[in-house]
Amino acid sequence: MKLWPWKKGGPDLETRATQFDLLPGYMAAKSTNARADGMAALSATVAACGGAWSRAFAMLRAEPEADLLPANMLASVGLDLLLKGESCWHIRTLQGELDLVPVAAWDELGGGHFTLHISHPNTTETVAALASEVLRLVINPDPLQPWRGRSPLHFAGLSPVLMAEIENALSGALPYAGKGLLPMPATLASDQSSKVLSGLQNGSLAVITSKADMAVHSGGDRNEIKRVELTPDLRGLDLTASASGLHNRLLTACGIPPSLLSDTGNAGASREAYRLFVLQTISPLARILLPELKRKLGIDRLSLADMMAADVAGRARAVSSLVQSGVPVAVAMSLVGWEGQDLAGVSSVKTDSGDD
Asked: Has this prediction a pTM greater than 0.90?
């Protein structure tokens, strides 16, 4: 085929080959990774767990050098640990100071050698690194692969998938809620059909023409034109109870007391749930991560002081009770995490020991 019909000897048209399934496959992979992060099916409950872990880790304070692990980096660590059970960072020096770069994927080659893949906006950097240059934080290690971490959602079985499927079912049904069809006979006069549609036609109604007997359901009487509902009937599925049970199951698997995210509005129960979340979930995780942080970054402690600041009233009552029982003030302050505070004369202060 020539470029111009009247031009002889012209160049042939350029021929190009296209691989039609490459781009859709790439987009599908990116979508799956964005929704599930490769490990857990994302749902509102999983997002709530991720937010709780991320914010809790952001409130930890590294001692003695808090600048080594700023809040945004700790928040990323918390989210990685929840979704994947591990978090990897490349230790570098930037202008004479330590700098931690998040690693998207890595290969542990053995013998203390790693291949790190670091993502950038328009390229991926591949770095060969030694074990001393790699900060690897792991929780819930697999006994068969102790170098690999496991997400808390891994122990929940299919619960994250079921929760996501329930939300997908509801989101797929909502576009049809309130929608309907109005069958009308094709033989109906236009002025009569306009009169029928007045007061009925809106964004939720679609009109279709049909045979007279199908439209009126009786074969002759046009006054029996009825709307056909398209709203899905989900009552038989009992999704409310199932979703509530899965919601609480996922929260518990992630170490979050369900009462912490309850809508009851009970402040006392929320305080107790928050205290339980800090002491039974975040504090043990901080201790599990501490050896790696101490070995690679020289961090001696991940302090919970900022998190427990929300429990000032409870700890003040504990100090008062201990002091009134004969415990020295310094010891009582240390027991509640307030060591080093100057509270002269606290032992002489008498407080009411009644319930709040």
From this structure: no
